[in-house]
Amino acid sequence: MIIVDSRERKWEHIRQYFEKNGVEYAVKKLDSGDYFNTDNGGIVIDRKQNLQELCSNLMKGDENIMRFTREAARAKAVGRQLIVLIEGTNCKSTKDVLTWQSKFSKHSGRWLNDKMFNLTLSYGVEWQFCKKNETAKKILEILGYDS
User: Fold this and answer.
1) Closest CA to 80 of 142, 11, 147, 146
2) Directed axis angle between helix 135-143 and helix 12-20, to 10°?
3) Beta carbons of 38 and 1 less than 8 angstroms apart
4) d(C-alpha 68, C-alpha 44), whole Å
5) 54-57 — which CB contacts under 8 Å span 24+ positions?
6) What is the DSSP secondary structure assignment for residue 80, as one 8-state letter?
7) Which residues pair with 47 in a beta bridge?
8) Can you tell me the distance from the alpha carbon of 107 to that of 109, in angstroms, rounded to the nearest whole number?
9) DSSP-based three-state secondary structure for 82
């Protein structure tokens, strides 16, 4: 069964895919991430709508960076791989992030890439990318969900 964090927002497209394809899911509070497979407890997915949301989560001076770091630390502490799935981007790897530019802040793709790299080194965070219309399928694939 897939557990969806009760604080997850704007996941209607994912819920619709789950229901259309008979994916068993429940909405509950998760300590880290947004999606978890009870049959494969070693991975948790934190979904970001785009690189701008990720950038906002990692900005210094903001409570968000501490929240995100605590979430990554909690996942690591219980032996779970935290995978951040970023939708709505043409990026295929973290290298592609280098050329991204925020429309809303002074932070560059290089800055964001450095933050992502540090989280990988410190907490083993893995980064994956997809188009919005592929998100639900990608979540199931990453979590090893078998219907």
Assistant:
1) 142
2) 70
3) yes
4) 14
5) 54/84, 54/86, 54/112, 54/116, 55/102, 55/105, 55/107, 55/112, 56/105
6) P
7) 85
8) 7
9) strand
- Tell me the residue range of the domain where 114 lies: 2-143
Strands 2-5 and 35-37: antiparallel
Give the percent of the chain with pLDDT over 70: 97
Token couple for 58:
């990692």
Cβ atoms < 10 Å from Cβ of 83: 22
Beta 43-48 vs 81-87: how paired, if at all? parallel
- Band (pLDDT 50/70/90 cuts) for residue 100 is very high
Residue positions counted in the chain = 147
| pLDDT higher than threshold 70 for residue 61 | no
Return the beta strands (E) in 58-112 as ranges.
81-87
- The CATH number given to whatever domain includes residue 12 is 3.40.50.10130
Report, as an integer, the average pLDDT of 128-137: 97
Say if residue 77's pLDDT is above 80. yes
**Number of domains composing the chain:** 1
Lowest mean pLDDT among 42-56, 59-73, 90-104: 59-73
Radius of gyration of the chain (CA): 15
